[in-house]
Design a protein that fits this description.
The chain has 180 residues and is mostly beta strands. The chain has a single domain, classed as TolA/TonB C-terminal domain (2-Layer Sandwich), CATH 3.30.2420.10. It has 3 helices and 14 strands. The protein has a 4-stranded antiparallel beta sheet, with helices on one face. Strands 2-1-5 form a 3-stranded antiparallel beta sheet, with no helix packed on it. A hairpin with a 2-residue loop joins strand 3 and strand 4.
Length: 180
């Protein structure tokens, strides 16, 4: 059985896309009835009703990390971080991959080879889709305990931010994927 991460009614979704901040999901809640789970006009975020919860997409265990570009190993570079926005469809397929905007957690000065390696691999990733769980009432939602049990599962397209850190440790390349 698949284990889901539940965010309850604290998930913020931009245009049906999750809007995480350095691998964390922002918080938004509303007391509107179930049909009100639609984009808020000011920032295109989905607002979940009290009787709804959100389950993040799960990445496939076969998803691989990018390789450290061989042409850069001899340069013994300091650690570099690439941030990607990865769009995931309602069916769990990657629909778009692009460089995330610069932020406190994502510098944009990494060599282009790191970005290319990251984008190439991210395009091959697969996921169980994100789910918006709609329950008859708040009590049913609370009983579901990190699942859609007893409610209706609605697959949801999302965009997640991933930080991919490339470094060398004792001359060996290491790549860490953070986020989602």
């Amino acid at each position: 059985m698949t284990r889901w991460i539940a965010l309850g009614c604290t998930a913020a979704l931009a245009c049906g896309h999750a809007a995480p901040s350095h691998a964390q999901t922002a918080a938004t809640a509303t007391s509107a009835p179930a049909p009100a789970a639609k984009a808020a006009a000011h920032d295109n975020r989905m607002v979940l009703a009290d009787n709804e919860s959100f389950l993040m997409p799960l990445d496939d265990a076969k998803n691989v990390h990018p390789d450290y570009p061989q042409g850069l190993l001899a340069q013994n570079l300091p650690p570099r971080t690439v941030c990607l926005m990865v769009g995931i469809s309602e069916k769990g397929a990657v629909t778009v991959v692009h460089k995330a905007p610069a932020s406190e957690y994502c510098a944009t000065d990494a060599e282009p080879e790191f970005l290319a390696a990251s984008e190439t691999v991210a395009k091959t990733w697969k996921f169980d889709p994100a789910l918006r769980c709609v329950f008859r009432n708040v009590e049913d939602k609370e009983r579901a305990n990190a699942s859609c049990a007893g409610g209706k599962s609605v697959p949801q397209a999302v965009t997640l931010t991933y930080r991919i850190r490339f470094e060398q440790v004792n001359g060996q390349p290491k790549v860490h994927v953070i986020g989602g």
